Amino acid sequence: AAATxxxxxxxxxxxxxxxxxxxxxxxxxxxxxxxxxxxxTATLARALAPCEKAIxxxxxxxxxxxxxxxxxxxxxxxxxxxxxxxxxxxxxxxxTLAKAVALDQRFEMAYFTLGESELVSARxxxxxxxSPLAMLEVGRRAYERSVALxxxxxxxxxxxxxxxxxxxxxxxxxxxxxxxxxxxxxxSAEAALAINARHATAALEAGALHLVRARTTSGEERRxxxxxxxxxxxDALGFDANLEREARPLVDEATRLASAR
Length: 261
Known about the structure:
With 261 residues, the protein is an all-alpha fold.
């Protein structure tokens, strides 16, 4: 696909959408590499040049600004996975996405990606023992704005599910109530699955939320929640085998809790 688009861009070098499409193609490949644990640095670098070219041709395109923000966010995701502070890169992504929103205040995908950037920031805080709650609140508002603009935006609903999962896990670790967050997270994840029954990461988040609840209960309730977690996590792996690295430890934990006496 990239080779075909590159030919189109060479034939029409002053058309911004061709360069933007090339940027999105490389960025999508970079996201796939991240899922598989493959270093996406070279691929994301290839995405940056056509994004910047597209912006030079039309700096007023919210879509092109959003594409650049996605690339910048993916760089931050990989940095965090490698133990590198993603803060400066997240700052770049937020600034670019803010431009996209300023250009089109009804661009739901820009709000969704802003929510994603706050999840990366929250995860980095958790990695280092710091509270993620402020970032999660900013992310919640961004995701909810995306859903308000497009109630069928399953990815933003999945994002809310993940956000509530992180907040529930943080609260559980600090001996606080988790039930409101688990309920809200499951509602969001199941809403995403109602829109797209094969939404792999929504299924993963639903499973993870059931697992959070299983960890804090006992007896038959624990086994029931662990069994529900196991089912959703297996669904996620069936929908997308690339989730193996993230889902497998959760599946193993759910299996253990479901069989515990």
